Amino acid sequence: MPFAQQNESIARTRAPAKVATLLGLPPPLSYLSPLMTAPAAFSEPLVRIRGLTTVLNGKTIFDTLDLDIPRGKVTAIMGPSGTGKTTLLKHITGQMRGDAGQVAVDGKNVAELSREKLFELREKIGYLFQNSALLTDFDVFENVAFPLRQHTKLPEVLIRNIVLTKLQAVGLRGAAGLMPAELSGGMARRVALARAIVFDPMLILYDEPFVGLDPIALSQVLKLIRTLNETLGITSVLVAHELDAIKQVADLVYLIANGKVVAQGDPKTIASDGSPWTRQFFGGDIDGPVPFQYPAGDYAQALGLAGAEG
Amino acid sequence: MSAQPQRNVITHALAQIGEAGLFLLTLLAAVPRSMKHARETVRQLWFVGAMSLTIIMVCGLFVGMVLGLQLYYVLSIFGGTAASGTVVAIAIYRELGPVVTALLFAGRAGTSITAEIGLMRATDQLAAMEMMAVDPIAYVAVPRYLAGLIAMPLLCAVFCALGIFGGHLVGVSWLGIDNGTFWSNMTATVDVWKDVVNGILVKSLAFGAVVSLIAVYQGYTTPPTSEGVAYATTRTVVASSIAILALDFVLTAFLM
Cα separations (Å) of B46 from A39, B59, B148, B150, B156? Predict the structure, then answer.
């Protein structure tokens, strides 16, 4: 491979920053220079959602939703089950498009991007799937190496080092040779996390990253998310239900219900902001603005007891 | 009452054929992009081609042996057992080779392609590829389609060779037809272009194109549930079998 091409590939994966992270050093200045020379652009939110309206199978998922994901911060998105948190991540990545409104990532309207441009954008986004979505034909090492092999021409030795670094970060370097079927749910999630961060993307979307993790792995994953954010300035979006974990890692929390943002703020204080939404959600109350029951007809009638009283 | 008009069986089948046709255009458009995944195509060629060899070889051998037996019985009535080799070869090259290979391929490789892609969809692997900016059509669908297309004529050639060997085994080694007569009658009558090329190359390529398309299309569009994958796998076998036999009639009529 020509040296210039190799050099470009290395630069593309931000290898210097990776090496610095690996050695526990601050990231190289050359890597941070865009941050320093263009402060105005970086004050803009990385993801800007305006008036997003989405109706799926007759059900309104988002109703003129407005939401900003600030650059370089860890933002948590919380809300009752079925409220559209994962769907929101799919809108951000262009997997789904809303019926109205706009989702802009890094200043680009996702819905208007061509397939090529959308793929270019996705190369800068890491995504942790709820069910890990590991490629079952490949072992753990190859799963993590997959994005590198597809998008770079890095020499094998560098790919190996990057993959082992990421696996070490999630505590699974020793599992590099295992197949996905041999992993527990928590281990598979950590492998998927290693794959999501293998490019050190500008934005990482974590869909339920804490499910199935034991306390040790949870603590490591929290530390990893925070380290990625603080050392490399990566913007993170977490969809999760674990408020205690979110308090440790997030800078900002959005609570979504009924298709809108019903509360937002500091994760340490949002639970006590006094709104009925936060009181019910964080207090775990059945009674409140969020119905526990999925919309249904009359219960007595469904049980065949209608008219029994009369 | 549903707002969408209910499709009856015929309109549903026609709609599926139309959708499969559009899917074929998507596949063909993705072929240049899939060139960088040539290793994946080779890997799939191993799975659908090399791994199907055993069933193709065993079935080819038995089909040839049965054909040898039946023909010996019929031809002996007219005292024409010397033509046994010729008829075995023509029947296998022109019909049984390509048709039975395609039917076996649909059952062995077609179902595995459908089930594999269907499960990849059900477990979000295709979505994960999309999210890693890897086009699943170019990386998953096209390599499997091309592998089926390439493997079918090769498997058909192996089937034909084993079939004729089976016919020889029964006719010459067991029932005592003269070895020289068996081969000389066959080589004098069988035409390389009309029989061998039309059967092994033309028919097999056509069957390979159709069976692979059905298998990949069914897998790619299956609902992401265990029941959806099960139905898609069944549909691959049913649709492939009908398509092979119908297409065989059309091709035979044109290639006569």
Answer: 54, 19, 10, 11, 16
- pLDDT tens-digit map of A106-118: 999 999 999 889 9
Is-contact A98 A277, C-beta < 8 A?
A: no
Of B131, B134, B137, B229, which to mutate for an interface test with A (greatest number of A Cβ within 10 Å)? B131
Q: Note whether residue B26 is domain-resident.
A: no
Q: Is A208 helix (H, G, I), strand (E, B) or coil?
A: coil
CB atoms within 10 A of CB B230: 13
What values do phi and psi take at A264, rounded to 5? -150, 155
Question: How many domains does chain B divide into?
Answer: 1
Residues in Cβ contact with B186 at an 8 Å cutoff, skipping those fewer than 6 apart = B85, B86, B88, B89, B164
Report pTM: 0.82
DSSP secondary structure code for residue A66 in this structure: E
**For A50-95, how does the pLDDT look when each residue is reduced to its tens digit (9 = 90+)?**
999 999 888 889 999 999 999 999 999 998 888 889 999 999 999 9
- Coil, strand, or helix at residue A63? strand
* Å between B42 CA and nearest CA of chain A: 15
Rounded to whole angstroms, how far apart are CA atoms A89 and A123?
15
CA B59 to chain centre: 14
Contact A133 B124 (CB under 8 A): yes
Token pair, residue B140, equals 């998953």
Is residue B227 in some structural domain? Answer: yes
- Cα A219 to Cα A282: distance, rounded to the nearest angstrom: 21
User: Domain range for residue B158?
Assistant: 37-255
ipTM of the complex: 0.79
Helix H or strand E encompassing B27: helix B9-34
- The answer for residues whose C-beta is within 8 angstroms of residue A14's C-beta and 6 or more apart is A31, A199, A200, A232
A173 residue type, one letter: R
Closest CB to B124 among A93, A125, A129: A129
Handedness of CA B222, B227, B233, B238 (dihedral sign): negative
- Please give the structure tokens belonging to residue A270: 């949002």
Question: For chain A, what is the total number of helices (H) and then of strands (E)?
Answer: 13, 10
In the numeric block, the tokens 């109706």 are attached to A55
Phi, psi angles (nearest 5°) of residue B47: -65, -50
Q: Which of the residues A86, A89, A90, A137 would you substitute to probe the B interface, choosing the one with the greatest number of B C-beta atoms within 10 Å?
A: A137
Determine, yes or no, domain membership for B183. yes
Q: With contact defined as beta carbons under 8 Å apart, do A43 and A35 qualify?
A: no
Instruction: Decide if pLDDT at A142 tops 90.
Output: yes
Q: How far is A215 from chain B (nearest CA, A)?
A: 26
Q: Tokens at residue B63, please?
A: 């089909």
- Measured between alpha carbons, how far is residue A261 from residues A81, B12, B23, B106, B139 in Å? 15, 43, 40, 51, 38
Angle at A143 (CA atoms; ends A203, B227), nearest 5 degrees: 100
Could you tell me if residue B15 is inside a domain?
Answer: no
Q: In the numeric block, which tokens belong to residue A136?
A: 């079952």
CB-based contact, A136 to chain B, within 8 Å: yes
